[in-house]
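Reproducibility note. Readers wishing to regenerate the assembly model reported in the main text can use the exact inputs given here. Chain order matters: entities are listed in the order in which they were concatenated for prediction.
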Amino acid sequence: MREFLADVVTTMNWGVLGYVLVLDASMLVLVVVGARTVATTLHWSGAEGLDRVFASPLTPGISVLVPAHDEEAGVLDTLAAVLAQRYPLLEVVLVDDGSTDRTFDLVAERYGLTPVTPRWRADTPVEGEVLSVHRATTGDPLTVVRKTSVKRRSDALNAALNLARHPLVCMVDADSLLEPDALLKVARPFIEDPDSVVGTGGVIRTANAAVTDRGAVLEPRLSRRWLVRIQAVEYLRSFLLGRTTWAGADALLIISGAFGLFRRDAVVEVGGLDPRSLAEDAELVVSLREHLQGAGRPCRMVFVPETVCWTEVPETWSVLGRQRQRWSHGLAQLLWKHRRMVGNPRFGAVGLLALPFFLVFELLGPVVEVVGLASVVVAAALGMLDPGTASLVAGVALALGLLVSTSVVAVEEFTFHRYRSGRDLTALLLAGALENVGYRQVHAWYRLRGLLAALARREPVWTAMPRTGFTTADPAPAEAWEAIRTS
Amino acid sequence: MSGLSLAAVVATAVLTGATLLLLAAVTVEHARRGRRQARDAARRAELTPLVYAALDGDDEDAQAGLEHAPAVLDDLVLDLLPQLRGADRVALGGVLVRRGVVARAAADLSARAPWRRGRAAALLGNAADTAHTAALTALLTDRSAAVRCAAARALGKAGDPEAALPLLRALSRSRRVPAGVIGMALLDLGTPVLPALRAALAAPPSAAAQALAADLLGLHGDLEAAGPLLARAAGRVQPLTVRRSAVTALGRLGSPAATPVLATVLAEPGSPALRRAAAEALGRIGDDAALAVLATAFTDSSAGSSSGDAAVRADCADALAGAGEEGRELLAASAWSSGPLGEAARAALSNRARPREARARTAA
Amino acid sequence: MTHVLVVDDDPAIASLVAFKIGRMGARVSVEADGEAGLAAARQLRPDLVVLDWMMPRMNGLEVCAALRADADPQLASVPVILLTAKAQESDVERGFVAGATDYVVKPFSPRELVSRVTAALPPGALGA
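Running the prediction on these inputs yields the following structure tokens for the assembly.
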């Protein structure tokens, strides 16, 4: 009996080690390939013709959709930043999603809102009741929809989608801080490949502790909190490098909910955002792919490896835990809903590479990691662990993890170098190291809980979703799964 | 087990070594960047007055000084160039020619890396260089789509009207350049390309070229093209995209002579998109006849009830609301009725109200 | 001496415009954002303002509207030339509604801008 147990534990130990090594190695590949793409993009910088896109009367208009629930702290800044975007033709549709604070009053006062009879341009189902529609009288192209909340960002966005009049729709979170050229950068692929581009996104970075003014980041700075610093590295790896690489293989699965641009007709065609999804941003991308590619129509999702948007990330473990649990739950829903795409050659690199990768490393990753850790503990308790071998093996895994996070920071320093102070750079490098010990393991636990929640009840319970009152730190409605590793 | 241990030790050592190497590289890069930026800023500050002096072209000493200035000067000039027009742009372009920057870019047009070709093209465009039109034109069929777009933009900015025809042809090649990019390039070339656009409307290299030519002639407000545009708008055998562009262009020209044709298009069964374009064009023309057509189409009870028909009707309402006091009066007659008609009228009216009126209404 | 205020967040453009207008014999002050520009205008009471539209802190349109609404009659009537990359028809309209005296689109001709500045000032204000 004891021998059998020993065999099981040993096998598990080795299995987990192999898994971690394969995962880290594939991340290293993603980082290296991503770094090359970023370098190419930087070579083009200044010659991409953004000024021509801006000057052109032929540039397609963009409707920026902003869902806001109790956002009195930041809504005016966000609107100012969106309305100040360097883009030739845009409108903003703000949805006051059942706010109980002064969100609407502030906007009404600043923009002289007046009630209007709405002109609906699509009839995507909306569950909340639309109470009224207003328009700015200050000359700003702003429409505001007031509706009752069903505590779902997707419902607010669908209401806004029905009012949008331009051919492109940009979904933005009310607490996103946009770069001034964000729309131009993500709109360019639509102009240069109008027949096949359906969605575009860009790099999203952590905003905590940055110096901001009226919704624009004046100077990014690194937070003093290690939890935030670690997430800063995580975001860099996942956006700058992971998504860049996936998009290069035309297998991009996620365009962040914090900032993404889509063809309106395509979004309307798939019925807007899935109201039941906990990861409605990734859900939308996969749905568009399933719908269009399934019908043999072109469907390119482009990732622009340049910073477009800054978002605040959780500053405490408990908020982070809820966020990551939700993301993992959402991923499980998504993979279940689109299970026929997994491994399906009809969907190209998405079906053969990206979805299986997400299934094995993102969704099931935490199972392997948590079980593996437990087996090591058991082995140690049973005295079956040779301390010498164990530490050597752990050393390899740790060294590989360190190399990955250091290369991420190195790429940042050699390309964008947005953090100017040496202190921030050092902190970033240290945070990358810390991610491997402690953070990664706790993160696996959160994700495992999300997966279990998804398995326990396929219908998500929404009452767990509202914002927790963290006005500065909780991106609960931000609901991108930003930092899902390497995505 | 010892073999495994050895392998683990070696792997750890290699990985750690690589990490340390990266760390060293990051440290060095960070320090070097700081110094480099400080140095460049100082040099720029030094050179800026020289560049300004050279702009007016009357300062011989400044001209001579510029030819031997450090490379940072090129960046300075290249930053400024895209923002400028006219004589000063030509003067700065001359500086780049004399410093050999233009010649180097011309050589780079055949570089291996796509970004080098693209950057070189962009530079030639910014420098208003018309000596390399042929080379840039050749890049319109480059294997890299990004380079093709860069070449089209550069041809537009360089300003040689001879580029118009190759640009229009690039719309329909197998390695093509999209209409959004070609369109802006042709707009950058300005009125000298109007004859080429009129020719493309009459005897088009492709339907895409014809539609784009119609769009651009409309944006230019080229009254000489009114006749051919009318023919394209009316002709039912024309491709739909061409008809729609012609209809929109007629609206931009604003000539009431187009009203009868646009009225026919609006009443045609078929593409809602085309009919919506006709409604908008009639609103832009805004003469009495056009408004009457719109009002009739809006209230026409025989119209279908599909979503396309509803959209056409709503666009008629928008066009009326946007066509001044008279249009709004016509619309106001329907605004009090219940049902979809009244709602469309109210939506159009409330969305078009000018700020002052809107405030008055809120107060009332 | 005629005093011109240039407000543009692109230092290259601001300094070029300042240089060109300075050569016409005017005193030129430069500010890099809308808020600082408005403050400078209130303090310096310039004879003319060249104003970018898209700037941090406060955009040119807001600055222009604030100037027009100023209690000081000289400031309320100061000629304002918008110098901006916003080139759409509706942008130009909005610029004039906000109270701009003139509207120049980037890419611009510095010589033409100088002529427009001269024309917006009282005759003989710029010696040239």
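We highlight two features of this model. The longest strand of chain C covers residues 3-7. Chain C has a mean pLDDT of 90.
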